[in-house]
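ok so I'm stuck.
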Amino acid sequence: MKFNNFFIVILLLSLANISLAKTFSRCSLARAMYALGIPKSELARWTCIAEHESKYRTDIIGPANSDGSND
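replied:
not stuck anymore, here's the structure
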């Protein structure tokens, strides 16, 4: 019985993670960043970084950096 409950909790958590993921377009990401206060002069740089790091997907976590952190 405990295993079934554990499995159900893990399944629900994994589904919650999937449902929160989003794929932006280049323009929609730029608009969202601008709305959050990113200056227009920096939008091109940040959208380029997002494109190369994750293809604009919010569920992507890159490989670990040399200091153990993730992007």
